[in-house]
Amino acid sequence: PRVTGAYARIPRRGVVTGVGVVSPIGCGADAYAGALEKGQCGIRRLPDKDPELYHSDLGAPATDFRPQEHFSPPELRRMDRASQMVLVAFREAKAMAGLNRPPGDNTASLVLGTTLGGMNSGLDFYRRHLKGMTRARQLLDFAPYAANDHVMADGGLHGTSLVLSTACAAGTHAVGVALDMIRSGQSDLVVAGGFDTFSELTFAGFGVLGLMSRDAVRPFDLQRSGLVLGEVAGILILEERQRALERGAPVLGELCGFGMTSDAHHMTAPESDGTGAARAMRLALQDAGLDPVQIGYINAHGTATRKNDAAETAAIRQVFGGALADIPVSSTKSMIGHTLGAAGALELIATLLALGRGFLPPTVNFRETD
Length: 370
Hints:
- The chain is of the alpha/beta class and about 375 residues long.
- It contains 13 helices and eleven strands.
- The strands form three sheets. Strands 1, 2, 5, 6, 7, 8 and 9 form a seven-stranded mixed β-sheet that branches.
- The protein is globular, with a radius of gyration of 20 Å.
- The mean pLDDT is about 90.
């Protein structure tokens, strides 16, 4: 929708000028968008996962990601898989935005969201420690902020560097915080996004919770049976709108509004009536100066777990009411799985690419309305 009213008079607005993707259905924005449009599913059986031990052997790995094509052997030894994925996604986003050199003032900032960070390095260190083969160097990339350090150094960025770990909202929060930094004048350019990889910890944890599907991911379907984990990295380049236009940067879309809340209810279960999520959506609409009837598409969290789907449906109905009959809703998790702290960033990128190319991502595997 065309931005009008009070929002259009905001002196500093944020636009997206580049994106980078590493995902189970394609590495690179073009491959990711093409797979989304075709409804390709990246979920598969994982031979190293015992379904009795983990309650499921399904996952959505980034199988087309080949780090050896991007990094030298010393770099590969120094970086966790998470850092490798983030760095590749960042380089793609930077190239798309036309930022082949660091910004002139070197004040570009970085905000990333993650749940696990470099967890695989930590787990490998622990296994080696038990065998008396401790390699302390592995812990250098274990910290959640390690990926930030690699991106800041690689891009020559000298602004703020933040890492957010707010569970499955982290990637969305990272983009929202980045937008606030641009609006406030703290930065003219902010790199934002999210990342998470597979680990034994998450497979075991979600298995214990009884949330893992053994067959397919079917968000909002009557026969849904749970989620499947995916590994991704998604990066967006956000710029102050006038700056982007002056340098002739490609504009993929404008971020008009953002809202965040906390249910303050339970560690893993949402409020059943969706009140917290509904409040966040209303705050985003209010921030953007938009009415519900002006929304053309909703990319849902859509985990395919019973409590999330019910609460999210209730929230969307609260906010959009009768207008919902004309608003498509879909979940890209049906294709790439639940990517934890990266989920919101990958879903925002999916929405930007889909709107730019004139299609809407399907909810694959959806058969029977609940």
